[in-house]
Every structure is written in C-alpha cells, then in structure tokens.
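Usage example:
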Amino acid sequence: MTDFFDEMHNPDGSFRTAYSEIGQWIGEEDVARLRAKQREAEEVFRLTGITFNVYGQADAEERLIPFDIIPRVISSSEWQKLSRGIEQRVRAINAFLHDIYHRQEIVRAGRLPAEMVIGNEAFLPQMLGVSPPGRVYTHIVGIDLVRTGPDEFYVLEDNARTPSGVSYMLENRETMLKMFPELFSKTRVQRVSDYPTNLRRSLAACAPSATSGDPTVAVLTPGIYNSAYYEHAFLADQMGVELVEGHDLRVRDGRVCMRTTQGYKAIDVLYRRVDDEYLDPLNFNPDSALGVPGIMDVYRAGGITIANAPGTGIADDKAIYSFMPDIVEFYTGEKAILQNVPTWRCSEPEALAYVLDNLHELVVKEVHGSGGYGMLIGPAASKRELAAFRAKLKAKPGNYIAQPTLSLSTVPIFARSGLAPRHVDLRPFVLVSPEGINITPGGLTRVALKKGSLVVNSSQGGGTKDTWVLED
Amino acid sequence: MLGKTAGGLFWMARYLERAENTARLLETGQRMALTRSNGADEEWGPVLQTAGVLQGYQSKYDEVTKDNAIDWLLRDTENPSSIRSVIKQARDNARLVRTALTYEVWSAVNGAWMRLEDQLKRRVGERDLPNVLELVRERTTLVRGAILGSMMRNDIYDFLRLGTFIERADNVGRILDVKYFVLLPTAFSVGSSLDNVQWEIILRSIGAGGGYRMTRGQKSGASDIADFLILDERMPRSLSFCSRKLVENLGYLAKDYGTEMPSAALATALYQKFDGREISEIFEQGLHEYIQDVLTELGKISAQIEIDYRFNE
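Running the assembly step on the lines above writes:
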C-alpha cells in the first residue's frame, strides 16, 4: 500500500501529527473491547433506524451503511485551506447558475460552449429569467473531495441538487460521543451538531421577501420507501419542521399549502428532497405522484422558496464539471483554490481517441450518472469489460467523461485482522443564504471497505467514518 | 400537525393495540385447547371469528386446525391482522410519523418490529408459542411505557390515545359479540360448569381475570361479568372506560384547536350508552343488539375522526 498516501501514518510507520492522540488510544485499547464497541455501534444504528433501501432489490430489505469506529482526522490548518476553496467554489456555482438562467455572459464570453447549456438535460428552460429569493440557487451543497497527498486535494464532483449523507455525519459523531467519550476529552474536535440549527436558519433567511414573521419551513420527501427517508425524517425532526409528501400539499390562493389537522397552512420555504422532474406534474413529468401540481407557477411568482432551486443540476453535471476551473475564475476573478481532476470529455474526438487508447488506466463515468452506477474503473476491469465499455463509448461518446485513476488516500479501518488501510473520500456540507456561506467542519467520510477498492458509494459496499476537524 | 401525521399516529396506536389483543386471543385459544380432553380444533373457529379474520382464513384453508389457525393469527403475511402484519404496519406508521415521536417511542416500536420480525420469520412451534406471545406483550408494554413517560401531552398524544381506545373497545365489543349467548341468563345454563369455563375464557381474552376477582370476588354470574366488561369504569378495557377516554381526548383536541368537531358529539352519544346505565336495562334491551349497536357507533366515530382531522385528502 506504499503507493498511496496514508492519512494516519508517515512512511516510517509513525503517526502523523493530527493522529497522535488517536494512535495512542488505539495502541492502548483492548482489541476485544473495540470489537464489542463496533458491534454495539451497529446495534445503535439499527435501533435508531439509520438504514437505507437498496433500489432494484425485490424484497427492498433495509440495510445498514457500515460504520467504522476509527475516526478520520483533519488538522485545523488543512481544513482552513479546504474551506476557503470550498467557499470560493460554491460562490462561483451560485453566480454561474444565476448567469446561466439570465444573460449567459459566460457563453457570450466564449468561455463555455452554448451547447453545453442548451443541449444539457439538466438545463431547465422553465428557470430562465427566474430569480430565486436572495439569489440563492444551491442552499445546500455537498462537495466531494479526494486526497492524494499531504497537500493535494481534488474536487471529484459537486453535488448541487439534493446532496445526501449529512445525517450520517451527525449520527456518526453522536455514536462516537456515546461510545468513546474519553476520546473527546483528550482531543478537541470542532462541533458538527449545530448543522440542523444552521440549516433551519439558513433556509429561513431565504424565505420569499413577502414572508412576514417566522417563515414556515417544511421538508419534502418522496416517502418512507425512498432510500434516504431516514435522513429526511431526521432533518425535519432536528429542525422542528413538518416532513411532507406531495399528497400533503396543494396549491391554494397562489400559495403552496400543507394539509394539517386544522386545515391548509401555507409554506414559505420547502427543502425538497425530490428531483426536479418529479416536482410538478403540471410543469415537468406528468406521471409524478411525488410532487405538487402547480408549485412551479407559485415559485415563479415568488410565493415559495424551493431549496435547492430547480435547475441547479446543470452545475453538477459531469460535463460541466470539466469547465469548473474556468467557471470559478470567470465569476470570482481568482484562480480556483481547489483543483479539478483532469477530465477528458469524450464528446470531443481527440479526447475520445485518447480515452479509447488508454481505457485500462482511466476511470470512465456517465455524464448524468450518480451513485457509482454505470462507471468503469479501467485498472480493475477485465478485458471483456473493457471491450464492452469501448463499444458503449463509441456508440454514445457524449454520454461519458474520463479521468485518470487517482491514488486516493487511505485511512485505516478496524478490520477483522486489525487496522487495515482503505481508500476514502470526503463530502463536506455547505449552507448558502444571503447571510453567508456556512461550512460544517468535516463532513461525511466515505470509505471503500473492500481491500484495494476505490468505490466508496454505499450502494457499492462503502462505509462511513466519523470525521474530525481538530481545533487550533 | 399534518393530517397525515395524525392518521399515522392513530393507526400506529391501533395496530399496537391489535397486536396485543391478538396475542391475548391466541393465549386464550391455546389454553382452551390444552384444557380440553380431546384437544379439539373446533375451539379455534370462534377465536378466528373474534379476531375478525375467519373469512380470510377460510379463503386459504378448507378446515380449521389448531396449527393453521395459530399460524394465520400469528405470522401469516396474507392476513393483514396477523401479529406479524400489524407490528410491521405499526412500525411503518411510526416511520411515517417519526418527527412526531420521541426517540424513546420510535426506538421502542422499531425494536419491537426488529425482535418480532426475527422471531416470526419462521413457523413457531407449539413449544415456543408462549415465549413469542410473551415477547409481544413485553414489547408492546415497552412502547406504552415510552409513550406515557416521554411524550408531550398535546394533540400528538391525543391521536395516539384515540387509536388505542377505538381499537380496544372494538376488540372487547367483538369478544362480547361472539360470546354474548354465554352471558345471557337462561334457566338452563346458569351455574353449570360449562358456563364457568366460558366465562373464564371471556375474562382471559380481555385480560380481565385479576381485576374481576379483585372487585367481584368469587361471584361469577353472567350479569356480573357483563357489568364488569361493559360498565365498570375502573376496568381499563371496559367499553365504558374506552368510550369515556374517546370523549376526553376528543375534548382535549377541541380545546387545543378551539373547535369542537362532529366526532366529539358522536363519542358523547356513545358514552351515554354506558354512563349511569344498569346492566339489567341492557339485558332487557337485548345484549346482542346492544353490542352490535356499540360496534357500529365505534366504526362511525373512527371514520368521523379521519374526516374531522383530515387524515386523508
């Protein structure tokens, strides 16, 4: 594993500074006790109901995302740099979205090809000329980062639609606090528990300007069979707001209202965890039972805030991703602090030729894919898989991008055989409102539990870890 | 509160109460079979009927046997009222209304489902039946304790209570409906040993044996038992007690929301069938008709609550 940067250990086997307390703790702990604690953690997660449903499985059995008890640690100075880069990127994304749905200066300036916008499935013409309250498009963002060296971080992708996973960030910390209180008295870790309060405040600050008094906020979920239902309920509960489904809502007198035991009540801010196309059967997918007929009309008239705004998907589209360094520079006037992974757009003939020649070394992703589905990891693929993918690429090159296979950093997990390094990524969560940008220190660390695997998605055998950002 | 949430709370409570009632019926059925010299299967017909699942059973099986009846009541997922089905439904409703529940209540319901689903995945042999039924009792009791100890006394609590007492009254009503003939004072059967067995069964099915002996001693006349189960307000499963709770909780809601809804008037009318009445009057009126009438009213109240508080669109 010496090819990879290990976040816990120096090459000589000693602990890196940020991990010195953790290292000492693990050294002194009884392995049997840690094992018992690991089981205990699982029991807590099950009882709390922190489970997810796997799509496409007949019995729709609820599964647990495996939790690893060894925390991932980030030093205060590392975090400061990261958060500057994240803030810059998120500001640029919001400016980009406003521009794309208004004057499209970036296209006029020749920095982004027009077809990247107009021909993009994630582009919503219904949003043209619409200015969301406070000009905020992405109220909640998750930026996926990977690390390849002590000072090398890359943005792997931006999640500007409805990023999930924040409940795991919070529950992982709660679980660690419950099981290893002694660790937190030795090491000063920055808090994450303010997130729900900050989320509510941030959403309320984005209420339509006509709102009087304390804005009524609600969370819109597709329902109890959605894979992220636990998170939707958790966030509504923690914010102290209603958790609604499409059939609880209807448009009345120009407002979106929820059916309460005492009649219909207007909602000011809707944190929706339903995709754009299901949001409004009158304006988008007519078969959707998850949305609210007419909500887009209310939205365009300024009667409700939808978070995130419809049409934000164009900012996290994988083809647009490759333009992000330009986008950041165009809107902030600064060089991007966070690096992009070099990306070949297979729609371009030269890039396609390169990708086809070097497929065995590259990671190829679908432009609109997510969750680790439909992607190829060249170095791990068989000859047959490579050939099959080559055919797909030739058939629809515009559907794919390719990137070099990054040497993702590792953090040890507590495996059956003891500590064992596994690849990780990091999804920090960002809140945007007219009051400012708030980044929770840390985020969700996802870890590929299978030895050597680079895929961290929970649907593909990934687990999670508590993520610590140390105090100064 | 969302209308849907009120509905979820109401049904969560109903399903939990039903699980407990069905467990009690199973216990009684099992005991009857054991105390019979011939271990007769025919005792299970009335049990299925009392649980309101006989029709469903007959669509699957041609004859009533002990093993099939137990399986149908306990764990058949084709039976929407089997213990396994209602625990799952209680848990689904709890998930739906997760934001209205305390962690204590949610984890008690979720824990009940986890443990029972684990136990009921496989067929339960006669030897293990008592333990499984005990587990149902234990887990539902834990949920009740969590509700009593951790929930705010507001509209959320009221909807839980309404569900509980509608279901309980319905259950007691159905037991009395199936067995009403045993309670009728006829010159022929009074004091015979058959009667004692039947009365014992009724008291057990309702979980009222201890309370009965405590308050009525060794008297076991039909009218005493009927009086106890229908009119005694100290008895938390009597029809009178349940209907008074409906009046109270609908009253709290009216006060909380500032409006009295039609369901409150229906509940008050139901309570008047018990309040200040004598059991002899009820016998004169006709016990069977009386019970039928109560069951019909309960159905109406339940439907009216759904409308009044906008459970559905």
